[in-house]
Write a structure and sequence with these properties.
The chain has about 500 residues and is mostly helical. The protein is built from 17 helices and four strands. A two-stranded antiparallel sheet has the order 1-3. A two-stranded antiparallel sheet has the order 2-4.
Amino acid sequence: MLSSTAGCETFLDVNDNPNSITTDAVQPYLILAQALKVTGDTYGLTLNSNYGNWVAGFWAKTGTVNGFNAERTYVYSTTYQQGLWYDTYNNLKDYDDIVTSGEAQGQPYHSAIAKIMKVFNYQLLVDEYGDIPYTQSLQGASGNITPTYDKAEDIYKDFIVKLDEAIATLASEPVGARAVGTEDIVFGGNLANWRKFANNLKLRILIRQSSVTSLDSYIRTEMAKLQSSVDGFINTDVVVQPGYLQTAGKQNPIWNMYRATPTGGTATYYNWVAGTDYILAQYQNNKDPRLSQLYLTVTNTTSPYVGKYKGVVLGEADPIPGGTGLSRYRTYGGIYKGFDAPVPLMLAAETYFLQAEAKSRSNPYLPGGDAAAKSDFNNGIRASFVYYYTPAPSRRNTTSDVSANAVTDYNAYLAANPTNPLVNWDVAGNTKLEKIIYQKYLAENAVTGIEAWNDYRRTGYPKFPASVQSASPRTDKLPTRLLYPQYELSTNSANVPAGVDQFTKIFWDVVD
């Protein structure tokens, strides 16, 4: 993965639209880095930090700020998180330009990478909105500006087709094809890793649908293709790393909004959010060493919790402690790593847990049996320790670099829980699925929170508490989706699906 800052000034100048340059300069390789960087911003900040971490029960409001009413009540409006829709479609347009121009300009590898990233982004939209514009989308002002909405189930099936096409291109050797270089700020031009990542996405897509019984035969057919893939899966963290700088507009987006300004001041949102009592308790109750790598104990000497870990009850009414009255995220820890930390697109832990789930079913999707599923399960936990303990590039070989402790603490975690059915694969008391999703939830805490939310809707695990101010009529007191944006309702009302509210399920959400 690219970790140097070479060329980062160009990669980070995403406000400069490459499509506004002269026609001759509109080349796929000139657009790719910026498109990937924007995906990292949207996925890491808008989807995970600003939405997923709340609805999945990782984050809650402190007492230092008012607001966050939608997050505390689950009463969503058509303007709530609408930036996700706009930003993702704008990002998709860049990838679409790369796809359509790549072959013509001798850049098929760039085209294939963009095709993979189109699937990545479209799935984000489907998982939060259901039916969306797909086949008629991205046509711009010169095309269809009122696109019809495709069925989510149909879009999901086309994802697999598009990923297969991309994999085939990346495995070929077209004569005269331009090589992929540093503009690939995810894998640094390693096409084998892109093929593996495409397989990872296929596995995520297929598992996401696995509770829909009518799709079982289709899923098994596609899983068989995955088994025969010579590429396999990538079992390292897939991250965007343009070479972030401690400069205005060029820091890691999560660090910039939630931890520190480029001049070293405290970012506004740092004092506004904290971890929930529920998530802190999961680490404490299981003697989990990750706790101290993620959170600080309370420092307020007047608090009854001084020297202890204290979170917030999601939706708790004021007065809520603020500042030193709560456990804050550790600076240079597992979540707020630093200004130059990469942004994850898919954690290695998620890939391992997906494989464990596929192998542990009563009628497995992937071969290997219980022993292989257990190995993947443990590797998923181990990968989580490695991720949380790995510092940002600028913090390597400093006092905050605890990467050498990751495997030791992982082993200590297993040793401390010999009879705990949520940690020890062989101990009865919870289903294998519940074990997997529980540990996956801990691994995704405040990093890829949207995936934890997707898994909850799909499986019902883990049973984290809803906001105490929830207005949801559901038994679990949670919502199920976002609402279509107001702009779509105003400009494309004839095509926006009718009768949708925030409790209308996505097609793969069949478990309550």
